Amino acid sequence: MKKWDLNNASKTIQFSVALLTAFIGGSLFSLVGLPIPWLLGPLAALLIASRFKNVKLIWPVSMRNTGLIIVGYSIGISFTKSSLSDMISHLPSMLILTTLIVLVCVCSAFVMSKYSGVDYPTSLTSSIPGGLSQIVVFAEEMKGIDITTVTFFHVTRVIMVVFLVPLLIFSPIFAAKSTNDSSDNVIPEWSDLFPLIFLFALICFLAARIGKIFKLPAPYFLGPVIAVAAVGLFGLQGPPLPPSLLDISQFMVGGYIGLLLKPEQLDNKRKTLLLALMNGLILICATIFFSFLLTQYYDLSTITGFLSLAPGGMDQMGIIAQEVNADVSTVTSYQLFRMAFIYVAVPPLLRLVLKLSLRKKDKYSNVKTKY
Q1: What average pLDDT does this structure show over 201-216?
Q2: pTM for the whole thing?
Q3: How far apart are CA 3 and CA 8, in angstroms?
Q4: What's the pLDDT tens digit per position in 149-174?
Q5: Is the pLDDT of residue 47 over 70?
Q6: Rounded to a whole number, what is the largest CA-CA distance in the chain?
Q7: How far is residue 122's CA from residue 146's CA, in Å, rounded to a whole number?
Q8: Distance between CA 125 and CA 134 in Å, rounded?
């Protein structure tokens, strides 16, 4: 058998085992009654399975992207003219609260740098709750930033948020009600999708590809959201998705996230993991506080306020918002604004910090050489 055939067979086995492991995790979480079982179950199962040295698992990025397109479509159909008007009225609070969250990150990064030995540019880059891919790309472009530490911090925070946020939302703090109560809502059926879903599938696929070309943050999620929302505002509304299809999309995304964390690449695993968890916890506590301020000013539920500010990925927060019947258009709007703000405003800040840090090192080096 050729080497190419052996490699393909090996990858097929690794993917099949990953699928089976993820399905078992989702089934167990669903059986126990944990929140968002088909996102958290595969995530947890693959995170645990991948820790065994002899186990090699793969999860194609194309599968995650397909899941994100489905989620993006589902959130896109929730945007209406009234939700767009609400989004515009929220712009001042978006700016103020996003700025406050960034300031919390700046301060926590400073404290973490002082007591951990991690240089401040790396610490700050690790703390900013932006999109993982954008932050890692930026870290790669800047000399002097530890990319492995940055990646580990962001992946740890995303996994931590995806686990903790549902548990918090279903706790007495928020007293969320599950959307599984179908007494007031008609549950969409698979037959209701056709034939209109074919047109929207094409729109979503093209929007995702165009978003990728124009380097949108999370293009496979944001592209469909923008395209479907725009089409809906012009009068063509897409059919709602059945819960089972949303479960499949969560399965596709959860499996990918579960295989992201790779602690074996770190030098000081225990210390770095502890710092990453503390950093994530500080951000979550800060956003809980800010979310209560937000709900005092606007007529929003505490769940919607929290998910709008939670330091997770925009796509993951959108999935959770759907599950707990939050206002998904508001959640997505706030998450999108924060991502855009961080994408535009944070890189210059990080460059300034890195320049000052390097200047300080050079000055210290010159003084040390002199004496």
Answers
A1: 91
A2: 0.72
A3: 9
A4: 877 787 778 778 777 877 787 777 66
A5: yes
A6: 80
A7: 6
A8: 11
DSSP assignment of 99-131 equals: HHHHHHHHHHHHHHHHHH---HHHHHHHHS-S-
Per-residue CA distances from 337 to 24, 107, 360 (Å): 36, 22, 34
Output the CA–CA distances (angstroms, integers) from residue 287 to 98, 106, 119, 131, 278, in the order listed: 10, 15, 25, 17, 14
The total of other beta-carbon atoms located within 10 Å of residue 167's CB is: 12
CA distance 287 to 292: 9
Reading the block at residue 329, the tokens are: 């258009």
Angle at the Cα of 42 from the Cα atoms of 41 and 44, rounded to 5 degrees: 65
Distance CA 211, CA 215 (A): 6
DSSP SS3 for 153: helix
Distance of CA 81 to the CA centre of its chain: 26
Higher pLDDT, 251 or 5: 251
Task: Give, in degrees to the nearest 5, the angle at Cα 300 between 294 and 303.
Answer: 85
* C-alpha count within 13 angstroms, C-beta hemisphere, residue 105: 26
SS3 237: coil
What average pLDDT score do residues 302-327 get?
81
- How far is 248 from 76, CA to CA, in rounded Å? 18
Q: Phi/psi of residue 120, each to 5°? A: -65, -40
Residue with tokens 């460059």: 351
Q: By percentage, how much of the chain surpasses pLDDT 90?
A: 17
Q: Which range has the worst mean pLDDT, 33-47, 59-73, 339-353?
A: 339-353
pLDDT at 301 (0 to 100)? 85
Angstrom distance (rounded) from CA 259 to CA 253:
11
What single-letter DSSP state applies at residue 240? P
Please check whether residue 150 is in contact with residue 139, taking contact to mean a CB–CB distance below 8 angstroms: yes
Cα separation of 239 and 260, whole Å?
Answer: 33
Question: What's the angle, vertex CA 174, arms to CA 337 and CA 127, rounded to 5?
Answer: 40
Please give the single-letter amino acid code of residue 356.
Answer: L
